[in-house]
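To: structure desk
From: M.T.
Subject: fold request, one chain
Message: Could you run this one when you get a chance? Sequence is below, nothing fancy, just the single chain.
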Amino acid sequence: MLQLQTVVGRAVFIGDRHRANAAARRATVEGDQHGSDDVAALLEHLGEQRAVVGGTGLGATITQRTCLEHPGRVRAAILISVEDIPAAAAIGHDRSFRSVDELAAITAPTLVFPGMDERHPAALAENAARVIPDGRLAPASLSSTLRTAEDLADAFAPAIRRFLAEQHGH
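Reply: Done. Structure tokens follow.
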């Protein structure tokens, strides 16, 4: 099973696994080509029907796959630093998308935070937020000034809180 971290409030957050190529290959060999089955299994184990699912880097790719392959499990999605499609394909070809247009099938409300480098281009995040029917671009993005978990929380938490509060009203 992929290493998944649960977060208080019925949310699942998936970290970037780009340095864990052996685990990615193992997941593919074992049959879960996208990690989305692990997310669904975790929710089942926790006794949760639906949750907010989010991830960063490859975790964002897994979140997108979960939205597409287990839509009934995802109440909302948070994508941080969306991976460039060719970059994702280089890590684990079964985890990526052929085109950002595939994201148009995501039905969950989705908050997208842009990345800051060629593997996580801001333009891709902007395009994903436009393509996803209920997608929205976050007002903050990754930057070289975000050096600690506290920096990241200070930059992203306000937008995430607003997004989650909007979802709570639905």
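Reply (cont.): Residues 1-8, 18-32 have pLDDT under 50 and may be disordered. Let me know if you need anything else for the meeting.
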